């Protein structure tokens, strides 16, 4: 939801930070971002929350820089976009799993399952819709989006995900209500896309 409003500022800042890194292949930055995200998970599983948060923040920064470098240097490719989203999904699974492993409980594992199930449903809600829109020539190229494929908007987008995951890390004592809240909002987002698809497809 906030991505649309933050896009201009975010792209401006990322482009400034990316300039000294133009000689680095964007896909290499994506891989480094993935490794950093996995390292964040290791730290969080060990209850090293400050280190985990710093690595999570670095992961998100690198995730933005790879796309900025690719666009500014003419290296944007379909494979790069695919690798980027795959790396994102790995990290988005690892962080909540690591947090629950770090302080295991029955309730923690139950809400973790609920959150990951919501992610699973949400992934289907936007990925297949994106594929249909691309097939109908209404994809990212037609709409002028900077992503490889069109990203249908909803209540929970990239900015909200970063915010929630940051809250998970800095407030691990409240994982159960935070996981439940995010899962519900993610399912609402999937429902929004279902309604949109029913009206427009």
Question: How is this fold's topology laid out?
Answer:
Layout: H1 3-18, H2 26-45, H3 49-72, H4 78-102, H5 106-135, H6 140-143, H7 158-170, H8 175-200
Helix pairs in contact: 1-3, 2-3, 2-4, 3-4, 3-7, 4-5, 5-8, 7-8
Notable features of this structure?
single chain; 201 residues; mainly alpha; Four Helix Bundle (Hemerythrin (Met), subunit A); 79% helix; globular
| Major beta-sheet overview | none
Helix count from the secondary structure assignment: 8
Regions with little confidence, pLDDT below 50 for 5+ residues:
none
**CATH-level-4 superfamily name:** CDP-alcohol phosphotransferase transmembrane (TM) domain
- Tally the structural domains: 1
Q: How would you spell out the order of helices and strands?
A: HHHHHHHH
Whole-number mean pLDDT: 90
Helix fraction bin: over 70%
CATH structural architecture = Up-down Bundle
How would you describe this structure to a colleague?
With 201 residues, this protein is mainly alpha-helical. It has one domain: CDP-alcohol phosphotransferase transmembrane (TM) domain (Four Helix Bundle (Hemerythrin (Met), subunit A)). Helices cover 79% and strands 0% of the residues. The chain contains 8 helices and no strands. It has helices at 3-18, 26-45, 49-72, 78-102, 106-135, 140-143, 158-170, 175-200. It is globular, with a radius of gyration of 17 Å. It starts with a helix and ends with a helix. The mean pLDDT is 90.
What's this model, at a glance?
The protein is mainly α and 201 residues long.
């Amino acid at each position: 939801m906030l991505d649309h409003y933050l896009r201009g500022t975010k792209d401006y800042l990322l482009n400034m930070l990316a300039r000294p890194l133009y000689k680095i292949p964007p896909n290499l930055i994506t891989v480094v971002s993935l490794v950093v995200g996995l390292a964040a998970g290791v730290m969080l599983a060990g209850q090293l929350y400050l280190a985990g948060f710093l690595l999570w923040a670095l992961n998100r920064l690198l995730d933005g820089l790879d796309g900025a470098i690719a666009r500014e240097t003419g290296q944007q490719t379909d494979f790069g976009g695919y690798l980027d989203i795959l790396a994102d999904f790995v990290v988005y699974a690892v962080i909540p799993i690591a947090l629950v492993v770090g302080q295991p409980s029955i309730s923690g594992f139950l809400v973790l399952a609920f959150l990951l199930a919501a992610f699973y449903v949400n992934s289907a809600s936007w990925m297949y819709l994106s594929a249909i829109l691309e097939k109908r020539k209404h994809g990212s190229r037609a709409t002028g989006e900077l992503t490889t494929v069109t990203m249908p908007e909803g209540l929970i987008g990239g900015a909200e995900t970063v915010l929630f995951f940051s809250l998970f890390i800095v407030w691990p004592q409240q994982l159960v209500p935070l996981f439940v809240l995010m899962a519900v909002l993610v399912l609402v987002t999937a429902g929004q896309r279902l309604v949109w698809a029913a009206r427009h497809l």
